[in-house]
Here is the input.
Amino acid sequence: MSRVRFGLKIGVLVAAMAVLSVQSWGQGCVVVRGGAMCGTNSGTTINLQQGEFNLVLGARNFTSFRHFRGDHEEAFRVAQGTEVINKSSFVDLSINYGITDRLFATVILPFVYNDRSSLYEHGGNPRFDSSGNLIGTWKGDRRHTYSSGLADIRFSVGYWLFDPMTSEYNYSVSLGMKTRTGSYDYTGTFYNQGPNKDQTLDGVVDQSIQPGDGGIGATIDVQGIQPLSDKITLVTSLFYLANVTNTNGVLLRTSNASMGSDTSQFSAPDQFGVRVGAFYTLMDHFSFYAGGRAEGIPSADLIGGSAGFRRPGYAVSVEPGLSYFNSDFSVVLSVPIAVYRNRTQSYIDKIRTEQRGVEVIGDAAFADYLISLGISYRFGGSGSKHAEM
Here is the structure.
């Protein structure tokens, strides 16, 4: 099999792998949202001929519960039982269409379901002394809030820089737009509220489980594929979402009249993702994937202001995966495992640091790992490229 034909087969394999990035890692309280992570076109569009479609269905699930300030884990939160637990599931449909053999269009339709449990939102966290004994009287318990539905739809148009039929390697650049179709003012029920902790009130749920961020954004997505041998192919992804919206107008549930709009509203932050890995062909139709990825939310946006409430930070992960593929159909299972997590200073943290003269940095909960399953199917076009594989 020639190197070019090997590249074609790997292109179809990567089609399924791309779905693992179509959505996001999510990473709990560090909110990387639906349709946001790198990978709208790697594999899903390489060798996608004019008039051909590729449908990619992805499912991901993770549980975040480990609290970090900076890169220091506050392990006592789990030991005391005060940790916030976000259980998040994502299902995304990515529709890719070959406008020409090198120009392509992508639409990503993301759907989410979140279950968040905490103590601090439902009566406050209890306080303990150095021996682990409860200080004072605590009026609260662990309760849940939820959110579900359509997240933020994304559109993009991209171009492969080299002819996929003649070049052993290729790179694409895709430019697009993120909409604000997802709800960003989703509400839930909160218990043990009020001065006497005896009220049940409705309010907006935490930013980390809002289906959308309320912002309009521009996206750039760069993909690369490079065969290294007859069995190994290197793949790379780089994604950035620049939200032009500053704050989305939704007040934090705990905001009050004394807070300015720059600290009392949810931010619509930028997002980023970088991914590098390699496929190794084990046997006909099966391959192993190994790579690394980093993704998160910056403290400051590229365009517009960076005000409002956000939990910036990033996670670095190793990512093993296993895949099955044929000329039209692919299935991939991947489990990115976090090896480094960092909750960085936010806009509000920096303001409070300047006011108080000591470093202030909020916390965020991260997941240990993510489980991803991707299914890809190609159809339409002349089918001539499939026959060569």
In short: Confidence is low (pLDDT under 50) at residues 1-16, 18-26, 34-43, 384-389. The chain has one domain: 3-388.
